[in-house]
Every structure is written in structure tokens, then in C-alpha cells.
Amino acid sequence: SVVFRVGLLASLRSRKLNGQTVGIMITASHNPPADNGVKLVDPMGEMLEESWEAYATILANASSDQKLLEAYAKIIAECHIKLEEKAKVIFARDTRPSGAHLTSILAEALEATETEYNDYSLLTTPQLHYITRCLNTKGTPYEYGEPSEQGYYAKIAASFKAALQGRQFSGSVTVDCANGIGGPKLRELTKNLPSPFDGGLGITIVNEDVINPDRLNFQCGADFVKTNQRAPPSTHAAPLTRCASLDGDADRIVYYFNDLDGNFRLLDGDRIATLAASFIGDLAQSAGLGEKLKVGVVQTAYANGASTAYVTQDLRLPVVCTATGVKHLHHAATKFDIGVYFEANGHGTVVFSDLALKRLSKCEPQSPAQSSALETLRALIGLINQTVGDALSDLLLVEVILAHKSWGPKEWDLTYTDLPNRLVRVEVADRSIFKAVDAERKLESPPGVQAQIDAAVGKFKSGRSFARASGTEDAVRVYAEAATRSEAEDLAQKIATIVRHAGG
Fold it and tell me: Can you give the pTM of this predicted structure?
């Protein structure tokens, strides 16, 4: 079993790190209910260190028990792991039917390696990341919080209230929980928040059926909304009502609404990033820390060009583009004092550097306005789950910002106009021949293909396009944007034809 082998790897990782706690999450996120997967979490709540991904692949692909033992021994030797060192692992799962069986297999691997473990049962993926970090920082100057599910709710709820600074909400928000783990966990979180009768946020929860497993991610959830560009059929929200959709393990969120003419308007990860960057940048200026805190935004090539222009030209903040994948964005965000990163699919967070935390802690306000901005910034540190993208935390962050700005979804949508775009999947004989560089925005091979793409793009107003090989199948994904929808479609098809010919 792959899960058994992941248990072996987690025990070695913990021993290598002198007994620090490593996390394992059993989930397949936005995928169908029959699928399942596993994620490893390093001690500070971040993704598994990239150099160890190769070891995971070696263990997973071992063709026999003997080969597995040999691979296990090789990792021990290469990493100079002391087996007498204690190992600690925590794990949890989402609501998929196969989860309980897989965690029992995981426990067998941990017992076989004499690893101390704790089964947290049902959690969202971000909750497991949070608890992992809390356990490893407890009793240190970097203590992150109480290492429990209730500690998670208490920290976020208290920070939410502090960040609001008495602001009022404009209407309620309808949250589609993808019939996944986010439903019951959002219910628990709301128990810790002020009720609408006490001036709190009104949250209407839909798609929270975790009893019928086949309903998970079925015609609902963040991936459904982003892919189909429409609200889940079960939402039934009135025009101009704020709506949000989580994914199956609650680490992604996208917002959307229907305008007065019934048109669907998506407020995706790009929109959340620009909203957060705008608010945090303004707060830093208002707190008198504009010159001392470098706020920046991290995007991938899939970010809409209009969002990039808005950040650089209107907000006057720096933007860095990285390869696709949360680990790349998170790493780049840590280079800023306050780094904001979101993928267009709604996965993202905000990261505060140690220097930023120090300056925010020691800053002495010189006016009531500076004091208010400083208090809000400090509250955001606790509200935002800095370990990983967290749909529940990001939901409350967006609501805080909209309350401060006195905005509804319409005002948020008006900050910039997305360039029309198109994403096309092209099947190829061998995806490995497509080698991307420059944060996956250019192809260095096959030779000459990028020149053909550049020539095609140059014929379109506001044109931009790139081709990126899939990580899981023999296919290449082509992204294109242009001034009009028909031009974006035309450009995408032209680039797809170039790719198809190059890929045989």
C-alpha cells in the first residue's frame, strides 16, 4: 500500500528532524469520492521539503517487499538517520469512505517503525497543518497556538473579532461546502463567532451532506465553480448576494455572485489576492510602516494579466511569478516582509516574515489612526492560517476586508476587468518533450515552438499565451488571453494547433 509506505517515510522524516512531529493528511481534495490520496506536512506546517519528494517516489514505486526494504535502508544511509531517535507523527482524514481504512493501514506502518502517533480523525487539511505547527512550536518564542481543533477555532474567532474593529457587515454570505469536511468544520467555527443578532456575520451553509459520500464535489465546490463558470445548482442565492465555494478538504475558496441582470461573476484566487494585498498595503501605510514593510504578491502564469497590471500599476506593489504549485508560491512569498499568494483556483494565504512580526509588535503608534491600523494588522496575523491555504480562514479574511471597505461583491468586482481567457487541453504522444522555463511562461523545447507561439501572440491585442505539460498525463495545457472573448478563443486554438503539431 502507498499509504503504508508514506507512513514509513514520515517516521524517517521525523527521526531525521530529531523527533519533531510530522503530519499526514488522507484526502483527494476536489477529486471524485472514489479517489483518495495522501499529503505529508513538515514541522512548521509547510509542505514536505522538496528534496524528500524523491524519496517518497522511490518508496511508492518499489516493486517488491525486498526492493522496499532496500529503498528504506538507502534513505536511512543517505540521510544519516539515527533509528534510536524518537519519531512522532499525527494524521487525519477527510470524509471519503476509504479514509478510515487507509488510516488503519497508516497506523500499522507507524507501529511497525515504533513511531509515536496521534489520530485526529476528521479534519480539514489546513487544520492538520495548523496543529502540526502548533505542536512543534509549543513552549518556544514562536508558539503558534493551542494544538487542537478547538484551539484552531478559538484563535481564528478571537482574531476575526479583533480585526473587524467594530465594522458592520453588508448582508450575509452563502457558503457551498462541496459536501465535504468543510461543512461540519464551518458549523463548529460559527459556534465561536458572534451571531448575526449580535452584529456578527450571517453565514448560510449549503452543500454540507457528508452522510452520502457520492455527493462529495458533485456539482458543487470550488473546482466546479471555477471550471464551469457558474454557481452550484443548489445555491439559490439572490442577485448581489455574496457566495463562496470551498473544495473537498477546505484548502481552497472562490467567491462569486449573480449581478442584477443574472450574469454570473467569478471572484477567484486572483481577486482574493488583489483584495488582500490592497487592504494590507493600505494598513501598512496607515500604521506608519509603509517604508519598513515590503508587501508583495506572488502569482503563477495562470493569473489573469489584468490582475497583474492592477497590482503593479494601481496598487504599486511588486509581483513575482513562480512555477505552478503551492510550494513554489509559498517559498516566494516568504521573501517579502508580507507576502500574499493565491493561485487562480482559490488556494492561497498571506505570510508574515519574522521581521514583519517584530516590527508590528514593537511599533508605537503616533495617532489614533495609526493605532487602529496597527491593531488590525496584528489581528490579521492570528486570523490568517500562514501554514497553507485555508478556506475557512480566507473566508473570514475576505469578510473582514469587505466590512472595512463597506463593499459588496459588485464593488469588489469593479476593481479591474479580467481579460477574456481560455484554457485548452491538448493530447500529445509524449509530454516530456515540452520543457518550460521562466516560471513556465516559455518553452525551451521542442526547438522553435516558442518562436511560433510568440509570433501568434503578437497578432492579438493584449494577447498572452503559454503551453505547459501536464504533471500527470500525456497532455499539454494551453492558456490564452486577449482583448475579446472571441480573440482569446482564436488565440488558444492557434497555440493548441502549434502544440499538437510539435507533439506528434
Answer: 0.95
**C-beta of residue 136 within 8 angstroms of C-beta of residue 21:** yes
Strand partners, 255: 244, 267
The residue assigned the cell 500574499 is 340
**Which residues have CB under 8 Å from 232's CB, separation 6+?**
176, 206, 207, 219, 220, 221, 224, 225, 245
How many Cβ atoms from other residues are within 10 Å of residue 127's Cβ?
28
In degrees, rounded to 5, the angle at the alpha carbon of residue 240 between the alpha carbons of residues 310 and 393 is 65
Per-residue confidence band for 193, with pLDDT thresholds at 50, 70 and 90: very high
Distance CA 298, CA 317 (A): 11
Helix count (H) and strand count (E) of the chain?
17, 18
pLDDT value of residue 235: 85
Give the residue-averaged pLDDT of 240-268. 96
Instruction: Give the DSSP H or E segment for 46.
Output: none
- pLDDT grade, residue 322 (50/70/90)? very high
Of residues 29, 159, 245, 278, which has the active-site annotation? 29
Q: Cα–Cα–Cα angle for 308, 310, 312, nearest 5°?
A: 70
Q: Where are the beta strands (DSSP E) in 143-232?
A: 173-176, 203-206
Dihedral class, residue 461 (left if φ above 0, else alpha if ψ from -120 to 50, else beta):
beta
Residue 227 confidence class, pLDDT cut points 50, 70, 90? confident
User: What's the confidence (pLDDT) of residue 199?
Assistant: 86
Which run of H or E residues covers position 468? strand 464-469
DSSP-based helix, strand, coil % in the chain, nearest 5: 45, 20, 40
pLDDT of residue 7: 98
DSSP state of 66: H
pLDDT for the residue 504: 76
β-pair partners for 427: 475
Mean pLDDT, the chain, rounded, equals: 96
Strands 88-93 vs 116-122: parallel, antiparallel or unpaired: parallel
For the ranges 25-34, 246-255, 293-302, the lowest mean pLDDT is seen at: 25-34
Q: Is 31 exposed, middle or buried (0-12, 13-18, 19+ CB in 10 A)?
A: middle
Is 29 marked active-site?
A: yes
Sheet with 338-342: strands ordered across? 319-322, 295-300, 338-342, 348-352
pLDDT of residue 472: 79
271 Cβ partners below 8 Å, 6+ apart?
255, 307, 412, 413, 415
Residue 468 phi, psi (nearest 5): -135, 130
Q: What is the pLDDT of residue 398?
A: 98
